[in-house]
Amino acid sequence: MTTNTQWWQEAVVYQVYPRSFQDSNGDGIGDLKGIIQRLDYLKKLGISAIWLSPVYRSPNDDNGYDISDYEQIMAEFGTMDDMDRLIQEAQQREIKIIMDLVVNHTSDEHPWFIESRASKENPYRDFYVWREGANGQAPNDLESTFLGSAWQLDEPTGDYYLHLFSQKQPDLNWENPSVRQAIYDMMNFWIDKGIGGFRMDVIDLVGKLPDQKITGNGPKLHEYLQEMNAQTFGGKDLLTVGETWGATPEIAKLYSDPQRNELSMVFQFEHVALDEEPGKSKWDLRPLQIPELKNVFSKWQTELGNQGWNSLFWNNHDLPRIVSRWGNDGSYRVQSAKMLAILLHMLKGTPYIYQGEEIGMTNRVIQDISEVEDIESKNMYADRIEKGYSKADILTSINTKGRDNARTPMQWDNTTNAGFTTNTPWLAVNKNYQEINVEQALADSNSIFYTYQKLIELRKNHPLIIWGNFELVTDTAEEVFAYYRHYQGESWLIVCNFSDQTQPFSLNKTTTETIIANTEKEYHQLSDRTLAPYEAFVVKLSNISE
Ligand code: TEU
Ligand code: CA
């Protein structure tokens, strides 16, 4: 049903990781003025909104996901004036700014926590989750995502506080109505600035019941989100997207059914886990099985129906680069990056592009743990060294899955440090910047950039891409991912060879138009074809069946 069309259903969002996007003042750290300098580039790409990873004041234990003041800008990134200018300059280019809302936890340097830990009688005590130890031990064996106990013993009171992430990220106590009110006030402060919405960090954890060791999907989660909606963005035409690692389609409908007044959509991660050993961690690797990817995508494309809305993504600041992960970052880099783009952007939902994805940026290769900045990788390294893993094995895991892969500086041109900074960058630039950079991409009419630009343009001009029904083509080779989109009597066929081998493809249908492809081939008839490695094309099918 297309009755209540929302702007974010037609949008493509671009994620900026500010620390690594563009440095404007030569301190080696990306900043707000740097983003403003690059808005024309994003306008050229054609995106409608920027998801801005956190820019708030933070001691940077987890690169801004540990916030010490929600209403101030991190000094390294600039000032509130710069932020206001960014919102305004973006608006002039019809680009909305989506702020990252990190409210499961704060920094331990947030004034609320400094008060909270001071004494049991402090009015802010119940802003966080405090428990007494059990026989001199942590209250229970709940673990932090960044490893080790989720409980930290704290002087002066001798109680433990909960931290589902690092020790410098104490969890807020959402059961306390004053906490929720303080968060809503802060959200309204940002809404009043004219932002376009919120991306909500680990929002599925806020209903946690730590004593029962329930973290995700706690019993009051949706009650809290409905309350938040009513008190902040409800009725204000904003995009809200929750980061929800534990979402199934059933759960995603609870968040995004328009009748329920919660969020616009969620990020679900089912496809992201497909190259992990089931039940183990992200570091325990296994090869991606294409049939499983088809199943997961088909399920999400069909099961939300009209009671929810999908987000579509391959990358973010926590994930390895998709072309290195499920494409081919060697001789088929350009072909496979375009295939992945076509596959994702022809699906139903709101696509998200992570900075550098549009030029096919790749993972980096490190030789030593000293090159790592990311707290998650560092903690994993220490943990596995202690458990007896070999250094080489651990470094392989970090090179494959570590979060710094996504966080190396944006590659703008072939000058020193890729045009990101004139100084030493906070994290080394990927060695391949002389071949892979924006300047090169813009100069080459066959580049990955122009495939993304065209996909975004197509979405603006073809309601079929936004509203059409999805249907998987089932009788294909295993490594061919093909699907139809059907809308108002029109059908498009999307065919993607998800492998570095040629693959057979045959369909007894003819076409009237090639919409986009990553080859120069002609696609009038579709029977008995041989797909080149990573070949991808989209065609409009003739109505007359043969
Ligand atoms: O990520 C949630 C989260 O669970 C990640 O730590 C994830 O498990 C891991 O990175 C997968 O590689 C969000 C943010 O996106 C992340 O950057 C933060 O570190 C985390 O929350 C804490 O705020
Ligand atoms: Ca800077």
Automatic annotation (TrEMBL):
PANTHER family: ALPHA-AMYLASE FAMILY MEMBER, NEUTRAL AND BASIC AMINO ACID TRANSPORT PROTEIN RBAT
Keyword check for Hydrolase: yes
Keyword DNA repair on entry: no
SMART domains: Aamy
Superkingdom, taxonomy of origin: Bacteria
Annotated Pfam families: Alpha-amylase, Malt_amylase_C
Record domain Glycosyl hydrolase family 13 catalytic: where: 15-407
Name by which UniProt lists this protein: Alpha-glucosidase
Species this chain originates from: Candidatus Enterococcus ikei
Alphabetical keyword list: Glycosidase, Hydrolase
Family: Belongs to the glycosyl hydrolase 13 family.
Coiled coil location: none
